[in-house]
Design goal:
This protein is α+β, with helices and mostly antiparallel strands. It is built from 11 helices and 4 strands; from the N terminus they run H-E-E-E-H-E-H-H-H-H-H-H-H-H-H. A 4-stranded antiparallel sheet has the order 3-2-1-4. Helix 7 runs antiparallel to helix 8 and helix 9 packs across helix 11. It is elongated, with a radius of gyration of 28 Å.
């Protein structure tokens, strides 16, 4: 192989290094990273320290990518622990919230890890959430199913949970009417408003009409 061609190939595979010129602390456990004298990005401070990244260190493109990925993964895990410490989340809901500050891949991996550790359980979450919707809002099965789908709960799991719940449809409608629209039977506008609200809660027109025409009270 000619000498000139060997030099050309060597130049192609030569690694280009970047110099970390400064690292400055920022809010929320982040640090501003400056490369070759210019601001480049914000990364997790703990990850930078763990990887030995400081001013004066030279890194290549692959090393920088690895550090960014590790920073993202660490932030995603910390965010996940914070969120589930505050309240229960479905797996999808948790992943979606983490994605506000991290990459999609890091968010999904963090949610997977929380599920693996037993800190996230869609079935337990869905059962509690469904029971809460029935108890506090007196929501219909269809309305509860819609809310569970919004949380990313699997359709088969939703069907299973709804089938296991006990509903007194007319009774729940009457409770809503008496608490929220006590004058529904006296005022046509209130009656229409009540019917529209009940439909948004997942109740069918036939059940609404039956409940409205019933004089029995539920408390």
């Amino acid at each position: 192989m000619p000498k000139a061609e060997c030099v050309y190939i060597r130049l192609l595979i030569e690694v280009e290094y970047m110099l970390i010129t400064a690292i400055e602390p920022r809010r929320k456990s982040l640090s501003a990273v400056y490369i070759d004298g210019e601001f480049a990005m914000k990364l997790d401070t703990f990850t930078l320290m763990k990887e030995g990244i400081k001013a004066g260190v030279e890194i290549d493109d692959q090393q920088l990518k690895d550090i960014i990925d590790k920073s993202d993964a660490y932030r995603a895990k910390e965010k996940a622990l914070y969120l589930i410490g505050y309240r229960d989340h479905s797996k999808k809901e948790l992943s979606d919230k983490i994605r506000r500050t991290c990459s999609k891949e890091a968010a999904e991996q963090a949610a997977d890890k929380m599920e693996e550790l037993g800190l996230v359980n869609d079935e337990n979450y869905a059962k509690r959430y469904a029971a809460q919707l029935l108890r506090s809002k007196h929501m219909a099965p269809r309305g509860i199913a819609y809310k569970l789908r919004e949380k990313g709960i699997d359709r088969d799991l939703i069907d299973k949970i709804i089938d296991e719940m006990e509903f007194d449809t007319i009774g729940e409608i009457k409770v809503i009417l008496e608490k929220k629209y006590p004058r529904y039977h006296e005022d046509e506008k209130i009656n229409r408003r009540a019917a529209a609200y009940l439909q948004r809660m997942g109740y069918g027109y036939g059940d609404i009409k039956t409940a409205m025409n019933s004089n029995e009270e539920y408390y």
